[in-house]
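Practice set, problem 2.
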Amino acid sequence: MSTRIHPQARTTPKIRQEIKDSGLSDRQAAKVFNITRATAAKWLKRDDVQDRSHCAHTLHTTLSAVQEVIVLSLRQSLYLPLDDLLFITRQYINPDVSRSGIARLLKREGMARLEDVIPKAEGETIPARKTFKDYEPGFLHVDIKYLPQMPDETSRRYLFVAIDRATRWVFLHVYGDMTERSSVDFLRRLKLASPIKIAKILTDNGSQFTDRFTAKDKKPSGQHAFDKGCASRGIEHRLAPPRHPQTNGMVERFNGRISELLQQTRFDSRADLEATLLNYLKLYNHHIPQRAIGSTTPIQALKEWQRRKPELGLSRILCKRTFGRKLSRCPECT
């Protein structure tokens, strides 16, 4: 039977037994077996040579055993989501409990998902979660993110971001405002820099993208500058449903990455901020594997699409920002 060894272990059970049988002191054993003195001393005084559990001998939890039973009963009887269960627990059972503490309790007892708690009729199956419809490269999500004001700026600026649904390839550009003029310029830059033939663009209902909420009938007229810019380039402009930001969640998640980057970095100037964003963009597209696309990078995904479907013509418009070929009409290469 195979023995499971801790992934960070410097010794095996066979070596540990040799240490115990060596008759050496901890100092001598450390030198002979090329381990630390503390490790040598540990195995010299141990009765066995197997790894032991790394769990704490005493688990300190906020909820008592009785309180845990009550929380689990509420989960089973009322089918409460985690946040609702947290509110009731703090209000009536234990005000000091944390969200993560309840989450660990539910996971330990096999109740982490509501699907595991709600009884099902015999033969009933849980419907699969809805996912994005599969598209070839060319369906891009576009959004805007507020940037913090730098010491050498008089006002804040805005980051326009586009991400391809199939490959997760990203393009971004910084603007001093978020007017329709900026959105049209971003569309122009995106079209020139994209290694993908853009077929569709999904945006929210901001005034820089649509006139949906300025029209009397609350319907887009198609005469907005961004609509015209898309039409002139053969791109279909789609709008997310009102009050459903999750529809554009793909680009929102990337913006979350940008938020983490901004929180972790200190910037001295606007140029410093822009350089950091561009460096991160290159890192993201070229070097960060994405689980949603098979743990490959966006550039690797583009290569794979080009190999599988050469008729997409990706190689015609690849520029220095992607595979190293310089394209004179790309605003980021010139």
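Problem 2, part (b): a different protein.
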Amino acid sequence: MSTRRQKNQLELAFGEGVTGEARSAAPEGTEADTAAPRLESPAVLGPLMEAIVERDNLRRALAQVRRNRGAPGVDGMTVDALPLYLKDHWPSIRSQLLDGTYRPQPVLRVEIPKVGGGVRALGIPTVLDRFIQQAVLQVLQAVWDPTFSDASYGFRPGRSAHQAVARAQEHIADGYGWVVDLDLEKFFDRMNHDILMGLVAKRVADRRILKLIRGFLAAGVTADGLVGPTDEGTPQGGPLSPLLSNLMLDVLDKELTRRGHCFVRYADDCNIYVRSRRAGERVMTSVTSFVTKRLQLRVNTAKSAVDRPSRRKFLGFSFTAGKAPPRRRIAPQALIRFKTRVRELTRRTKGASLEQTIENLRIYLTGWVGYFGFCQTPSVLRELHQWLRRRLRAFAWKQWRNGWNRFRQMARRGVPRRLAAQTAGSVHGPWRIAASPALNIALSNADLAALGLPVMTPRAA
């Protein structure tokens, strides 16, 4: 959508006369869609709801919800329908928010496949509730985020998974050769509402905000047409959930800092770095006890361990072992998932041409290399790229189907006729043929690159 059209829709929802008092309350000279509202220390926060329904904050929230897209919730409303809905109903919704009577709708329960097998349950709020959560998030995050631990990297502005991995690498290079790898079992599904709301109440004095957040947590979940209660957890499909998760785990961060530990946390992935296995086992026991008693969360003992960093994964990466400074490398599990996905995309039974298959691969590889190109082992990427090209040559060989067509395809692609005939009559399977001189001539590296296959190389750190 063009910037002008999007701006027109924002004005349609929050134009003159729609937000009323909220617009007049905006500080003179405020820039729309840029800075979040400027608020004071979290210890003395007063009325927040007025800041949340402030016009520019709402415009930024609506723009973000539109960028995020997402599926409809239980009411079926789409993201594109939201601006017109707000035009007609915003004055009433605003009044409900200001007097503390707004009631969120139940979330829609959906299940998506997990990378390692099984399914992950997501709770999708309605588009309207996502919009209101986003508006709340923008105000609260501006105040809360600066108070969070420097070792926390997940769901925070200006921070990334790559920064977390680099920080872990620094700890290992400093001589912390053992890692306490904590896995919190179903963290988002098991956050205790009372503990969480107690933490929110320490930072927010506005009772309307407290009631609204409690309403989002306890809105219920709809599955198969039936609405069930939500006594714990926070829906992973809501914009506010990541901030609330960081608030909950900030308690753990502060405790680890108080104890003097070196650690890195990205959402519910927490690695604590120590100098010996014995120290790691002591830390594992004491931290597990703290998490269980203070936060009423569970540590998954089957997935947690004290081990060398080279034998564990963190955000898809692990680290080389030895006396030299550790280097980032792609975790073995991530390499297996990569090959599994490429095999799916290059199945002949999918009915796609070689050109369309490479286009599908290009889309996947662009994101994959954008993330895993952060590794410091270029030889692994080169080997993967060689394997990928061979996979594509085998794919083409299968598509050419029979000896005569294979001979014709190779000959027209510059393979000498005698070599093309010998290769076309070979009894070997596609994988072995894919490494033959004839296939490397017929589909050279340059040919595959010209069809759009990107080069897999490390990206700059």
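Answer key, part (b): Residues 16-44 have pLDDT under 50 and may be disordered. The longest strand covers residues 107-113.
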